[in-house]
Amino acid sequence: MADTLSPNELWDKLNLKLYQDLGPLSFDAFVAPLKPIGIEDKRFLLAVPEEFADKIIDQWNQEISMKFVEFVSNETGTFIRPEFQRSAVTQTQLADGPQTSLTTPAPSEEHIPFSQDAGLNPDFTFEKFVIGSGNENARAIAQAVAEGPGKVYNPYLIYGGVGLGKTHLMQAIGNHYAKTNPNARIKYATAEDFLNDFTNSLRKGNETNATALFKKTYRSLDMLLVDDIQFWAGKPQVQEEFFNTFNALTKANKQIVMTSDRYPNDIPDLQDRLKSRFEQGITSDIQKPDVQTKVGILRNMQEKNELDIPNDVLQLIGESIDGNVRTLEGAFHSFEAKIRFQNKPATIETAKIILEEINANKKPVITVERIQEVVADYFMQTVDDMKSSRRQSDIVGARHVAIYLTRTMTDMSLPQIGKAFGNRDHSSISHAFTKIEEQIEKDTRMKEMVQSLAEEISDGQ
């Protein structure tokens, strides 16, 4: 996790991004000579050779520091600024010097116990989760699950778009349970983590007892938290293994919490028996935050980063950012960098500058290509499949939704839409539109899915 990266590990990640952004010549001149020392009080200490110090520090102040802050905030969710220490020692000595790990301080009585093995982020708590109209139901269920794991709402699945707080809410359940039950065996894993652990156990085989160890690790838990289960679409072997893990845990009244970017029945090639198991519990969705919720999130970030920002500035940023929480956080960190690094005042005028820079008020041009890409990605198909003559139900479903959105979000005529979807005639396009329109009227979940896709297309995320 980003919260537990050492300075060297974080520096390695930043090096790649800086290399891509600056190019090889500037990178070799202004980044490569630096060595990480440690992280203290939101300062990333970097050793710079004395012979190059003036030139490097000047270039960083002019161009690179802002990029650094942006990259670090994206990686860790924290504002950390670079600070240079001139040094005459060799690069080898610098590389072997002392380090301060980028971790949360040792927990006091007020802090939540943090287990690296559990994979929990101590910042993801109920107290730090801002409640709004789009997430209050999911939040209430999560609290009930945390207070009575394995007894109510098991399994619990939270679904919704990217960057809306699903992972935060799921890990808040784990953190609450860890606080009240310090000896509980809790594990957070992405669906990809679970897949990798499983395939590694198969690869190592019985010689190292890896398969048995994998099963013991996952099936002896008190609480299992799995992120992004849609990742298992079309992967029957890992679905089979999770089915067995699921049965073992729920039979022992152990809690399972999952997240997905869509409702389970909308995940293509997900086994019916898994869908059936998921329906035994409860699902809830998270919608995009309203303005009031976004302003609340910004206030939390302001307090965390020890800033004093007027309410009207926070209100403007909240009203102007129409994307998800991650987009909102990115705008906040851009504003923070302005007032910290460029000594800009925390005013409406400064907020307007950063909003203009990130094009917050400029809606992307909605094209049929954009619609096709978003819908194909959601349904885990390809644009070529949607344009083809293939009639598999999952492809047809994706095609119909894309046609409906194209008809409602662009000015294209039926013949033009038909041409964009594999030269179909206008009657086929009209049929697809009418079918989705009727489904939206009858099926609340279909209506929510289409609305979510339309928002993603409009946001340009």
Automatic annotation (TrEMBL):
InterPro entries: AAA+_ATPase, Chromosome_initiator_DnaA, Chromosome_initiator_DnaA-like, Chromosome_initiator_DnaA_CS, DnaA_C, DnaA_dom, DnaA_N_sf, P-loop_NTPase. Residues 340-461 are annotated as: Domain IV, binds dsDNA. Belongs to the DnaA family. The keyword Cytoplasm applies. Oligomerizes as a right-handed, spiral filament on DNA at oriC. This is Chromosomal replication initiator protein DnaA. Signal peptide: none annotated. Residues 152-287 form the AAA+ ATPase domain. Residues 367-436 form the Chromosomal replication initiator DnaA C-terminal domain. ATP binds at residues 163, 165-167. Plays an essential role in the initiation and regulation of chromosomal replication. ATP-DnaA binds to the origin of replication (oriC) to initiate formation of the DNA replication initiation complex once per cell cycle. Binds the DnaA box (a 9 base pair repeat at the origin) and separates the double-stranded (ds)DNA. Forms a right-handed helical filament on oriC DNA; dsDNA binds to the exterior of the filament while single-stranded (ss)DNA is stabiized in the filament's interior. Residues 91-106 have a biased composition (Polar residues). Keywords: ATP-binding, Cytoplasm, DNA replication, DNA-binding, Lipid-binding, Nucleotide-binding. Its main location: cytoplasm. Residues 1-89 are annotated as: Domain I, interacts with DnaA modulators. Domain I is involved in oligomerization and binding regulators, domain II is flexibile and of varying length in different bacteria, domain III forms the AAA+ region, while domain IV binds dsDNA. It is found in: Cytoplasm. The gene is dnaA. Residues 91-112 are annotated as: Disordered. SMART domains: AAA (SM00382), Bac_DnaA_C (SM00760).
